[in-house]
Amino acid sequence: MNELANCPNCDGLFVQTQFRTVCNDCYQKEERKFDAVYSYLRKRENRSANIDEVVAGTGVEEELVLKFIRLGRIQISNFKNLGYPCEKCRAMIREGKLCLSCKKDLEAQISQMNREEDRLRQKVQESRNTYYANSPEK
């Protein structure tokens, strides 16, 4: 997966890997910001902070804090009020990619599609039946 790419932050050229999504200079800046976020969260009084409080307390952009969470660098199981947005409705969640409501909605849509597909398949099968109009009488 190593490929040449432009850094999304500074537009510099770098080799992108699954672990490195920015150039070396921006990576160093991100590491300093990660240290600030992690140091903030390690303090006992900040362990119950939510995303907005972390952003306000550290000055680190929300998207970067969410990136740390998505990459697993910040384990939200250790911090009860941290989460990340659902990919569909942006509600805060703690696991998976979709909130429970969006997940149920998606499952209902899939179920409906399967039922419609079954009905269509049944109609096609019924139309394939062969009927002989002129069969010899015994």
Give the gist of this structure:
The chain is mainly alpha-helical. It has helices at residues 24-42, 51-58, 62-70, 100-128; strands at residues 3-6, 13-16, 84-85, 92-93.
How big a fraction of the residues is strand? 5-15%
The strand line-up of the biggest sheet is 1-2
Biggest sheet features? 2 strands, antiparallel
Number of helices: 4
Contiguous low-pLDDT stretches (5 residues minimum) are none
Q: Radius of gyration over alpha carbons?
A: 27 Å
What is the count of β-strands?
4
Share of helical residues:
40-55%
- End-to-end distance, in Å? 73 Å
Mean pLDDT: 89
Structural class: mainly alpha
Q: What count of structural domains? A: 2
* Dominant shape: elongated
- SSE run: EEHHHEEH
Would you give an account of this structure?
- With 138 residues, this protein is mainly alpha-helical.
- The chain has 2 domains: 1-81, no CATH class; 86-125.
- It is built from 4 helices and 4 strands.
- The strands form 2 sheets. It has a two-stranded antiparallel ribbon. Strands 3-4 form a two-stranded antiparallel ribbon.
Task: Describe this protein with a few key phrases.
single chain, 138 residues, 2 domains, two-stranded antiparallel ribbon
Task: Summarize the SSE layout with pairings.
Elements: E1 3-6, E2 13-16, H1 24-42, H2 51-58, H3 62-70, E3 84-85, E4 92-93, H4 100-128
Antiparallel strand pairs: 1-2, 3-4
Helix pairs in contact: 1-2
